[in-house]
Design brief:
three-stranded antiparallel β-sheet; five-stranded antiparallel β-sheet; alpha+beta; Helix Hairpins; Alpha-Beta Plaits; 8 helices; SH3 type barrels; 3 domains
Length: 273
């Protein structure tokens, strides 16, 4: 019995005690490492918020930062405990390559989403046209952007397709120009009609006084000149104000006694031209 007790004491001193000391050291290292990671994460969050980065991007960067440092911390703890970490690191690298190859399309959308959040070609609430979709941006996700169209349809567009296409942002500037074209026939008082239209369009609700509305001849056809009635509006009111300008144009034409050429005359003039 004494020999067994002696062997157990020797085993405890040679194996168990060093293992317990390593385990206690690993536990202390874990708590210290997590505290340091949490502190760095808070500093990173404050720095990104100070630079006014998007909240979605801030959460992503925080998670990526915390996850990467936690993996490094675990590898350090395993190495301190005596485990071989080289094969484990190689396994992680191989898994990363396999996942990247399998999810190449998803990762391209992810990368494009990060660029959209950093470069900010548009924001939530902006009206844009990109990737064949026009509407109001509702959400900029890491993989897809959600857009509500004018006919109340919700469309999710992959960020890679969105980022690789031309993006037209209708809401970027404080005002937007809308244009209504008016074809005329020969024989009309063009200058008088232009002055009347300019005065009438300036009275349309939603038309900005500065920059002032403008009317010019943009084309000259066989039937007659074509006027372009341009006015500046708030971007969100572009559709309604365009309709109001068209209605005001019709009222002005009726009040001035403007006559529309008969279809037969139009056809003959068009053929002659």
């Amino acid at each position: 019995m004494e020999a067994i007790i002696t062997q157990l004491q020797t085993l405890a001193l040679t194996d168990a005690l060093p293992f317990l000391l390593k385990a206690m050291g690993a536990l202390v290292l874990w708590f210290i490492g997590r505290a340091v990671i949490t502190g760095f994460r808070r500093v990173l969050n404050l720095g990104l918020q100070k630079r006014q980065f998007d909240s979605t991007l801030i959460r992503y960067v925080e998670s990526l930062f915390s996850g990467s440092l936690t993996i490094l911390l675990l590898l350090g703890i395993l190495g301190m405990m005596g485990f071989e970490t080289t094969s484990f690191a190689a396994l992680l690298a191989a898994a990363g390559i396999a996942i990247g190859t399998a999810w190449s399309g998803l990762l391209s959308n992810f990368a494009a989403g990060v660029f959209l959040l950093v470069l900010r070609p548009f924001r939530v609430g902006d009206e844009i046209n990109a990737a064949g979709v026009s509407g109001i941006v509702q959400e900029i996700g890491l993989f897809a952007t959600t857009i509500d169209t004018g006919d109340n349809l919700r469309i999710s567009v992959g960020n890679n397709r969105l980022f690789s296409d031309n993006i037209t942002n209708f809401s970027h500037h404080p005002h937007r120009k809308v244009v209504v074209k008016l074809p005329l026939i020969h024989g009309q008082d063009v200058h008088g009609l232009m002055e009347a239209l300019k005065a009438r369009v300036a009275e349309v609700p939603g038309v900005l006084a500065k920059p002032a509305p403008g009317i010019e001849v943009v084309e000259f056809t066989a039937l007659g000149p074509v006027l372009a009635i341009g006015a500046y509006v708030v971007p969100t009111q572009a559709g309604p104000v365009t309709g109001a300008i068209a209605l005001a144009t019709e009222e002005t034409l009726i009040a001035s006694g403007y006559m529309v050429a008969p279809p037969s005359l139009k056809d003959s003039l068009a053929k002659a031209g």
